[in-house]
Amino acid sequence: RKGSPALGIAAGALLGLACYGYVAAWAFVPLPALLLLDALRRRKDGPDGRKRVAVVLAGAATALAVASPLGLHLAARPERALARARELSPGRSPEPGRALLRNAAAFAGLFLVGGDPNERHGDPDRPVLPCAVTALALAGAAEGARRAGAARFLAAGAGLAILSSLLAVERTANAYRA
After folding, report:
1. What's the half-sphere exposure (Cβ side, CA atoms, 13 Å) at 74?
2. What are the angstrom distances between the C-alpha of 36 and each of 15, 29, 39, 57, 67?
3. According to the per-residue pLDDT averaged within each range, which of 22-26, 32-36, 47-51, 95-99 is highest?
4. Is the dihedral of CA 171, 174, 177, 178 positive or negative?
5. For residue 178, how far is the Cα from the chain centroid?
6. Distances in Å between the alpha carbon of 152 and those of 66, 143, 155, 161?
7. pLDDT tens, 42-67?
8. Over the stretch 128-141, which tens digit does the pLDDT of each residue have?
């Protein structure tokens, strides 16, 4: 937030590189735009506001520059761009609304009640996040989002990650994906 443009460039480069990895990283592609909207909204906060815009612009431009070869490649081969996303999308279900609700219930059960059936992701007999830990984390996230810009940034990233998990269609919820 108050870092240098060099920090924005480093963050943008990491985001751009992440796009080349697992498709779940694509969930974070909207993050620079969300940060830029927030920075532009608060740019009248004096020198800190203008600096924030410069840092976000540097990061967004770098992310775009680093990820653009992949974007061009996938634009030329749209069947590759959508293959994994199409496989995981609730839109492949005849009832996408119900598929999304089933995913939400499955992830709630995975995190709060049962465990991940895949033993490589955790203990199948224990919830990934006990209820008390989840309640404290949600309360802390809500308070942090209310108070500070850095917490809003983390909440935006967490929200994008959770949304991408809910949009994935599988036989069972998957802690690794979330």
Report:
1. 15
2. 15, 13, 5, 7, 18
3. 32-36
4. positive
5. 9
6. 25, 10, 5, 14
7. 777 777 778 888 888 999 999 999 99
8. 676 777 788 778 77
